[in-house]
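SAMPLE LOG
Freezer: B-3
Tube label: C17
Construct: single chain, 196 aa
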Amino acid sequence: MNTILRKSILGIAGLTVAGGLAAGPLNHDTSTPTTRNAAAVTTTQAAKLDSAALIPHGVQGTQSHIDLDDEQTANVKAIIAATKKAGMDERAAVVSIATALQESKLENLGHLGDRNDHDSQGLFQQRPSSGWGTVEQITDPEYSTMAFLKGLKQVDGWRDMPLTVAAQTVQVSAYPDHYAQWEQQAADLVAEHWNS
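STRUCTURE (predicted):
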């Protein structure tokens, strides 16, 4: 009988502790939840759940970050839409967005005159003289993303490479390691906008 009584008391104590832990934080929050707060929690949870898939090799080196305006955010969404249209996954979108962050800070750049790198233009700074397409094509976010993704698909094992190696293989930049600094922001943007 002592054993049964002891188990009952321990069971009740366990339920009390578990109930207190579960109910405790809920009772301390006196604010009224809003739809915006719920959406922010959902976005945060989605980013946490997707981080392993979006950054499978971990970020390399110091990360950079810029605040985006409406045009840059629209370009993020255009890159994601083109990635989906190409039948590619979220990781391809991360590589694409990180590349565009490095090349143009997600601005659809036209010819920059004396500041232009040869004839590079658009989100990915693609060059008509290198066969990426016409000026009109490479300054179209969907076309330029599809052209970048076509190149990425041709890189054997791109999913198993660090982001900067995959991006560099497509872009052939004079600064091959610079893509790495944008991986975290690119992953955050994909987590935020992939399902929006």
